[in-house]
Amino acid sequence: MNFKYYCGFSVAQKRKSINAMHESFLSENRLESVLEVSSKSESDLGRALSAFNLKIELKNGKNFSVENAFQASKVFEFGGPFLDLLYCTAKEAKKDVRLKNSGNLISFRYFNREWPLCPKTAFYDWLYINALARQQKLGSCVLEYSAFSDIEFNPKKSINCQARALALYVSLHKADKLQYVLSSVDQYMEVLGEGKKIKMTDSESEEKVNEKDTDINDGQIQMTLFDKNF
Question: Which of 25, 37, 60, 122 is deepest in the core (most CB within 10 A)?
Fold first, then answer.
């Protein structure tokens, strides 16, 4: 897909690029609507769904963004996880120097549960899907859209994409698989097709701190920057 990209870091320039991208995509595909999911989106919904803004709500009343949770869960050769990153701004969490100065990333640890690096986007997608599943209003609104984009996504710098995670959420809902994948991490991994069990500590076996986990069935779901397999 080709579209005119407007250089510059301003919100106005980003939005020009978003509109050009959407026009090009819709002209080539028989879909009615595309939602930009980022802090640069013109839509209130799109901005609310940014990983920087989408909140994970805990039973104790505390909350933090998906981005904060992701960065705070990283375990490196020489440090981490850095749990203080849960409660700074998402921007500060992403740019914390410890994330670059602690050696190679070796795993993720979230509420005592250890996550491997592969499948590559499994942990990020799980965080996003679980957070959105608890936001009923947002979760309902996204079902009205046929595809999603993220102008901030750069595959040269990251493998995780909030538009992809959102497309997965909608695809699972339409395939009537969402509640199944939210029931346990083991089922989530099973549906991913990897068949790898994620280690859990004894304490977490007795008490699931973040009450909902995730499963994902990839069988009939096609994921790209735009999800159009509905």
Answer: 37
Q: Would 217 be classed as within a structural domain?
A: no
200: in domain:
yes
Residue 227 has pLDDT above 50, yes or no: no
What CATH number is associated with residue 49? 1.10.357
Handedness of CA 114, 187, 207, 160 (dihedral sign): positive
Q: How many domains does the chain have?
A: 1
β-pairing verdict for 55-57 and 105-110:
unpaired
Establish if 19 belongs to a structural domain.
no
Q: What is the pLDDT of residues 90-128, one digit of tens each?
A: 999 999 999 999 999 999 999 989 999 999 999 999 999
For 70, the domain range is 36-206
